[in-house]
Amino acid sequence: GKMEYWDRKLSGLVDELKNEVELLGGGTMGVQELKTRLNDCENKVEEIRRGKQNYLTEVRMLEDHLEQQHYKTKLNHLDEQTQAAQERMAQARREIERRQLLEGAEARAQRNPNARAGNDQLLDQAEQKLGEIKESYQRDEILLEEIKVVGGDAVTKLRGQREQINEITEKADEIESQLKRADILVRNFARRMATDRVIQVFALINGLILLGMVFPMITSLKASTMAHNTNW
User: Fold this and answer.
1) Same domain, yes or no: 60 and 26
2) Which of 127, 152, 172 is the last residue of a domain?
3) Distance of alpha carbon 205 from alpha carbon 211, whole angstroms
4) How many domains does the chain have?
5) Quick one: which of 17, 31, 62, 131 has the fewest CB in 10 Å?
6) Would you say the C-alpha torsion 137, 138, 144, 150 has a positive or negative sign?
7) Which chain positions lie within coiled-coil regions (predicted)?
8) Does residue 62 share a domain with residue 8?
9) Is residue 121 part of a domain?
10) Is 7 a member of any domain?
11) 226: domain range?
């Protein structure tokens, strides 16, 4: 069926790519020939990409889940081989760029013999500048270590001050709590005193009323007694 066809097709394309990539490792190959073979490999990768799309389409149409899983696993293996080939192609591109730079430098040196001396001078200046940068970096590292030490001391002092502030805050909260309790006690005491005074006033009024009732009775009793004694 179509699934078997695209399975064979994609596997064949990957094998062809692997064979072509192996040819890129020839050290005696010129830059132009290397470019040509690399271009062939890139075309093969594009064929694999299109074949993979058809492969996945056929996999989705399979009804058997186990069969789907089998072809997906096989596709993952083919992807790994393709990825490895593309990494080798990337190395070939870097090799082409390196050779082109060397060829360009040699050509310029042949056209201008003094250019090599100028390049050496530029290289020396670059190395000198690099040395200065390294020295500056080392000084910065020393300064950074000193800053860390000073910063550590400052952090320790700040922590001590923070602890003192926390203690003062806790004491202030405790004093405020005690003041609130004292205020409540004073208010309760004043309320009780006010209540006691009201009771005392009512007692005095009741006493006066009672005295007002008893005094006339006593006066009347005394008058009756005196009248009785007079009659006798």
Assistant:
1) yes
2) 172
3) 10
4) 2
5) 131
6) negative
7) 31-185
8) yes
9) no
10) yes
11) 180-231
Helix (DSSP H) and strand (DSSP E) numbers for the chain: 4, 0
Q: Are 75 and 52 in contact (CB under 8 A)?
A: yes
Distance CA 78, CA 17 (A): 11
In contact, 47 and 13? CB cutoff 8 Å: yes
> What is the SS3 assignment for 62?
coil
What is the pLDDT tens value at each position of the chain, 232 positions in all? Answer: 789 999 999 999 999 999 999 888 766 778 888 888 899 999 999 999 999 999 999 999 998 999 999 999 999 999 999 999 999 999 888 888 888 888 776 666 666 655 555 556 666 666 677 677 767 667 777 767 666 666 666 667 777 777 777 777 777 677 677 767 766 765 766 666 556 666 777 777 877 777 777 667 667 766 666 665 665 5
Instruction: Sort 25 into a burial class: Cβ within 10 Å, 0-12 / 13-18 / 19+.
Output: exposed
Same domain, 147 and 38: yes
Place of tokens 């692997």: 18
Asked whether residue 126 is domain-assigned, the answer is no
Q: List, as own/partner pairs, every contact residues 43-47 make where C-beta atoms lie below 8 angstroms and the sequence separation is at least 24, other chains included.
A: 44/13, 44/16, 44/17, 44/20, 45/17, 45/82, 45/85, 45/86, 45/89, 47/13
